[in-house]
Design a protein that fits this description.
about 260 residues; 3 helices; alpha+beta; eight-stranded mixed barrel; about 30% helix; Sortase, Chain: A
């Protein structure tokens, strides 16, 4: 056998056994590309989740809160019609049983915030309460009582009933309807405070330990609208109480009674 034939035979044997010389592919960029691709997928997924959360916060919480507020308004009015205990209210200087947490205190109307602006007032200021209307600080006075009738409401998302509370001006009226009465308050002044300044809801705002003699109202919300590092506060006082049995609703809210 010739030398060339022997070499050829050896080569064939090596090829058949798979141990012949072959080029080994080594792509150092491959793992980097895979890592970049994986990172891109993670960022895209995160971006979609963040977008969905923003839509939920800015849009869907308002939809569900508006529906919940409408349901609470109807429930309060139904309780009044049935003679139920939905915050019958008190005559000026009188007393009333404290409503249970989550129950209706009354309905609030602020014409400056909209021709048909109305919100149910619920007993309590938890996130659940404030997602269904505005909330009454349980430790404060009820409508018509001596002391401070203090209310909290969202300024952004979750129905945002107090979105434009900063647009009130001194002299604007706030109407509160209970089962038996209409209470008319007038706002006097606005103040920006820190969230820790809980003295704004004292019986005499900012004066701890002082016994109240007036019938006041305090409206509280976040400031700025899309932040929460301050609180926007409006202070006011009661100017009149009228019996629903003896007089129609105040002229500015003459449409009340058809709030559904």
């Amino acid at each position: 056998m010739s030398r060339g034939a022997r070499i050829g035979s050896v080569t064939e044997v090596l090829r058949a056994s798979g141990s012949g010389t072959r080029s080994i592919s080594h792509d150092p960029v491959g793992p980097v590309r895979r890592a970049i691709g994986l990172l891109g997928e993670v960022l895209i997924t995160s971006g979609v989740l963040i977008l969905l959360f923003v839509v939920y916060q800015l849009f869907w919480t308002n939809v569900t809160a508006d529906q919940a507020a409408a349901a609470q308004t109807s429930r309060i009015e139904a309780q009044w019609a049935a003679g139920g205990p939905a915050a019958s209210g008190v005559a000026a200087g009188g007393s009333a049983a404290v409503p249970p947490i989550g129950s209706g205190v009354g309905l609030m109307f602020i014409p400056r915030l909209g021709d048909r602006w109305v919100e149910p007032v619920l007993q309590g200021v938890s996130l659940t309460d404030l997602a269904q209307g505005v909330g009454h600080y349980p430790q404060t006075a009820l409508p018509g009582q001596v002391g401070n009738f203090a209310i909290a409401g969202h300024r952004a998302t979750h129905g945002q009933p107090f979105a434009y509370l900063d647009q009130l001006v001194p002299g604007d009226k706030v109407y509160v309807e209970t089962r038996a009465s209409w209470y008319t308050y007038v706002v006097d002044r606005m103040q920006i405070v820190l969230p820790t300044d809980v003295g704004v809801i004292l019986p005499v705002p900012g004066q701890p330990g002082v016994a109240p003699s007036g019938r006041l109202i305090t409206l509280t919300t976040c400031n700025p609208r899309w932040g929460s590092w301050q609180r926007l506060i409006w202070f006011g006082h009661l100017v009149s109480v009228t019996s629903k049995a003896d007089s129609p609703p105040p002229a500015a809210v003459a449409w009340a009674g058809n709030t559904s």
